[in-house]
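Course exercise 7: structure representation. Students receive a sequence record and must write out the corresponding structure in token form. The form below is the worked example handed out in class, using HTH gntR-type domain-containing protein (231 residues). Read each field label carefully; the graders check that inputs and outputs are placed in the correct fields and that the protein name is recorded exactly as given.

STUDENT ID: A-19
EXERCISE PROTEIN: HTH gntR-type domain-containing protein
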Amino acid sequence: MLKRSSDERPSTPSEGAPNLSRIAYERFKEALFERRLQPGAFMSQAELVEIVGSPLGPLREALQVLQAEGLVTIRARAGIEIAKPDLALVRNSYQLRLFLETPAIRHFAEAAPRDRIEAMIAQHREAIGWVDGADLDRDLARRIEEVDLSLHLGAIDALDNPLLRRAFLQTQDYIRLIRLDHHYAYSAAKVRRTMAEHLEIFEACLARDPDAAEAALKTHLTQSIQRAMGL
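STUDENT ANSWER:
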């Protein structure tokens, strides 16, 4: 299970002007989610400097933040342990998504502009067409992931609450880690199922039916956790 080593929680490196610790933080997550770092592995700081491509000082600052977020554990004389998700993290992450996204999707169904919903529907239908007869390479998978995220983050952003947005994005990192650990990969069938589930949510939003939107979201998240774990 992912644990924080103390009650002190360093803040995420500044999201304003780029700084070296922020760059190291982003490069670490990029290396992790591109599978250049393996969940559960122990790494020395020197090895991380080589993989991440950041100087040691900024990397150390970034590691403090990453430890507070549960993505690494800094172990004296043993090195840096890359987080490996367990069943508790899977359960807790999806439970938190429900808490965050349920009021968000209800609000979205009630208040989102109709033309915005229709544009998102068109984008999802286009994404289904991308996978017909195509090789799902890294670039295409990244585009699909962006479309996948657009519904969830769009609903969260409609609440205009930066604290909720930060909590959602941190939870999304856990979801990506769970997928990574279970060797999750997009396939044409998975993309079609995911987009179809999203379209059901959008149709409920177009109908201004928050109850139906919530029900469709819960069904989607239940299916998502099963796909993430390879079930």
